[in-house]
Amino acid sequence: MWEPSIKGFKAWLQLEKSLSDNSVQAYIRDVELLLRFLVINKEQKAPAAVEPADLRVFLKWIHELGFSSSSQARILSGIKSFYRYCILEQISQTDPTTLLEAPKRKRILPDTLSFEEIEKLIAQIDLSKPEGPRNKAMLETLYSCGLRVSELVQLQLSKLYLDLGFVRVRGKGDKERLVPIGDSAIRHIQLYKQTTRTQIQPQKGKEDFVFLNKRGGPLSRIMIFYIIRNLAKTAGINKTVSPHTFRHSFATHLIEGGADLRAVQEMLGHASITTTEIYTHLDREFLRKTLQQFHPGFAKKE
């Protein structure tokens, strides 16, 4: 039901819209995310049968997974484009996205975890399970390097320079950067490579990916969301925790520790320093809360 429509949509984006390969892949991922949601919820609907109510539940689902408001808006934009294509090709007679509004994009201070909460979450990983060493290595790397989830799942063995303490990461716009990696992450990557990963036969063309699923392919970003969300729940952490929370925490802990803003910008792979500057606001919020908590003259008057 969906496969021919998605293939046609891809060709339309390439030929009619002349979009770049990266943009096309992003639009296709948005539609595949909707399809995955329908499968998970046992809604075997064709594209034409999807209703606005289904999409409202879908938006609630991706919000609960931890996608930011800007990511939710971008995903909805991709699905709106898909249905524009479906109307043009008469795959669907109605557009279920017409009355849907994208979440408001707010520049808010993101949730962060303390170092102790990071440690508590990672400690919930059951290392006796086959996926345990892999998950431990992934989360140690995510926090140690401040990676985006897309950068983590695309990390390659040939780009690991563990003897030098660096990894080469492909970020937004296919830009590569060198990021330092901590000793704990190095140790767990090496342990994973020497144990669990040797028991998996990589799929053809996927041999260079560091983190593999049990079928030998790279992990999906959604799978990382589920792993982290379940660990946070087990750890009793009552915050909205996602892979990006690890990245926010990485940056916040560096700034709170006195790190140079330009160095943090380089490690995060931000094109503009203004994007990184949100973490100086986080730092100021941390200082304000510290003052409220410990300064006798700052206490609220009854």
Walk me through this protein's architecture.
This protein has 302 residues and is mainly α. It contains 13 helices and 3 strands. The protein has helices spanning 3-15, 21-40, 52-64, 69-88, 115-122, 132-145, 149-153, 183-194, 221-235, 243-256, 261-268, 273-276, 278-294; strands spanning 160-161, 166-170, 176-180. It has a 3-stranded antiparallel β-sheet. Helix 5 (115-122) packs across helix 9 and helix 6 (132-145) packs across helix 10 (243-256). The radius of gyration is 21 Å and the shape is globular. The mean pLDDT is 87.
Total beta strand runs: 3
Determine the fraction of residues in helical runs and give it as a percent range.
40-55%
Q: C-alpha Rg, in Å?
A: 21 Å
Report, as a whole number of angstroms, the end-to-end distance: 64 Å
Q: Give start-end ranges of low-pLDDT stretches.
A: none
